[in-house]
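Risk register update: the risk that structure generation would not scale has been downgraded. Supporting records follow, first protein first.
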Amino acid sequence: MEPTKSKVPLEAVQLYNVFIHGGMSRRDFMGGLQKFAIGGLTAAALMEALMPNYAAAQQVAPTDNRIKASYETIPSPNGNGYIRGYLVRPISADTRNATPTKLPGVIVVHENRGLNPHIEDVARRFAMANFMAFAPDGLTSVGGFPGDDYQGGQLFGKVNGAKMTEDMVAAALWLKNRADCTGKITATGFCYGGGIANTLAVRLGADLAAAAPFYGGVPQAADVAKIKAAILVHHGELDTRTAATWPAYHTALDAAGVPNEGHVYPGAVHGFHCDATPERYNKAAADFAWNRTVEWFNQYARA
C-alpha cells in the first residue's frame, strides 16, 4: 500500500490535527503555519489546503434517487433531552414490498466538530451498501453543527461529555428498535466518534453486533469484558498516539473472547479516511478500511 503523496509538509498536517482537537487557537495555528510557508506557499494557502472541502469530496448526493434521507429528532432522557440526526435508507430496499424491508443499521458518529456534511455523506455511503444509517449530531443541545468546522469544535467543548454519550446511546437504541430495522445494529465513527463506537460496544453489550472505530479512544481495560460486539479497529501508522493503543486493546479483546481485528495503515495520518480534508486523506488506506468495514458489518449484522 503506497502512502498518498502530499504537497503540504507532514508537520503542517500534524499541526492541523492539534488545532482541530482544540490544542491551539486559530491565531496560533496560523502562526505555526508560517514556518512552512516556503517555495511559493503562503500560510493562507496552507490553511486553505488543510481545511475541509465538502463539495469536492461528496460521493453520494443528498438528492440521489437511490436513497431516502431525513432529519429525525429523538428523545434522550438521560442525556440532553433530545438529539437530532440524519437517517438514510436505500430506496431499492422498499420498492418491492408495501412495507419497508428491514435492514441492519449503522450508527455513524462524527469527529469533535458535530454532524458535518462529510459524516452525512458517509451515512449515505452506508445506505448504498444496503444498510440503514443514522448519524446523530452531538451538538444538538447547542444548536447543531454550525456550518463551520472550527466553530463546531468550539461548540463541542461546551457540551457536557457524559450527557453527549447518553445521547449517542439513545440514538443507537432508537435505531435498533425501529420497525424497519432488523434489530441488528453496528457502530462506526472517527476520532471522537471512534471512541464512541468503542463506548457503545461496552454500553450495549449484546445489543450491538459489531463496531469499526477509526482512530478512536479505547475503553478502560476493566470494561472490555462487557463487549460482545465484533471489533474492527483502524489506525494510521503516523498517528502514533492512537495507533499505540491497539496492541493492548487487541490482547484484552482476545482475553474476553471478543472477535476482533486491527489494521495500522502505512503512511496514513490521523483522519486518513476523510476525503473532505485532502491533505490528511490517504485513498489507499481509506479504501481498504471502508471495504473491510462493510465486509465486517455484513458478516456480523446479516447472519
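Supporting record for the second protein:
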Amino acid sequence: MKDQKIDPQVIDLYDKYCHGQIDRREFFRRAGALSLGAAGLTMAQALLPRYAEAQTISFTDERIKANYVTYPSPGGNSGEMRGYLVQPTGDGPFKTVLVIHENRGLNPHIEDVARRFAVEGFLALAPDGLEPAGGYPGNDDDGRTLQSDLDADKLLQDMVNSAEFLSNHDLAAGNIGVTGFCWGGYATNFVAARLGDKISAAVPFYGRGITAEEATNIKATLLVQSPEHDERINAAWPDFEAALNASNVEFERHLYPGANHGFHNNSTPRFDEENAALAWERTVAFFNQHIEG
C-alpha cells in the first residue's frame, strides 16, 4: 500500500504509536473506530514495518565486512556498549559515520542503513542503545518499551561514547560524521554539541533540536532533513534555527514536500521513495564534502 493511499488520520495515529503515546492495541482500536470503517484497520496493519522485505544490502554482500563489537561506555546505562560495525572491503582508513537508531533500539532497518553507508565507502557504526537492557529484542514494540525504561541521560552518554569509540578506531580517517532518525536525529544534534570539533558533519533526520546553550558547542556543519508533514518537529524548528544562528553554526535545511515523519524508512508505507532517494543522495554528498578522508 502506497503512502498516498494511507489516510492522514491513520498516519497521525501511527506517529503517536511510534512515539509511545499509545500502545499497539490502542493504535489498532482507534484506527478501526475511524469513519473509514474496516479500511482504517487495514491501513493500520499496512503501516507496521516489514524489515525482511525492506533490506537493500545483504549482510553477506561482498562489498562490505560487518560484525558486532563491544566497547566501554563510562557513565552510560551499564558501562558497556555493543554496536554494528560495517566497513567497506579494503584496508582503509575510511571516512567514518555514526548511525543512531530511533526510539526502539538497533532494528534491522538501521543495520541496513549502516550497510548502505559502507557500500558508499564509509566505515559505519550503529550502536544499540538497548544493549544494557539485553539488546534489541527482535520487535519494535518491546524495543520501544525497553528504550523508554532506560535512563535518558545515560542513553545519550552511550551515544557520545559510541562516537568517541568510532573516532578512535584504527580504520577511521579523521573526524567523524553522525546521523540519526527521529530520537536518533535529536541524539545526532546532542552528540555534535557534546563532542564539538570531533564531529565534522551532522545530518539529523526529523529529530528535535537541542537548547540554545547546548548549540553553542556545535562545530560541525549540519544538514537538517525535514518532511513537510511533521507538525511536532517542524513547529519547534524556528527555535532551533535561532539557536544555530546565534551560535554561528553553519547549516542547511531541506523540507521534503508531501513527505511524512519517517519518510526515509523503507520498511513501512510512510516511505517516500523519491524524497528518500534525494535525501540519501544529499546525505552521502554532504558527508563526502565535510568528513576527512
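The mean pLDDT is 91. On this basis the risk owner (M.S.) recommends closing the item.
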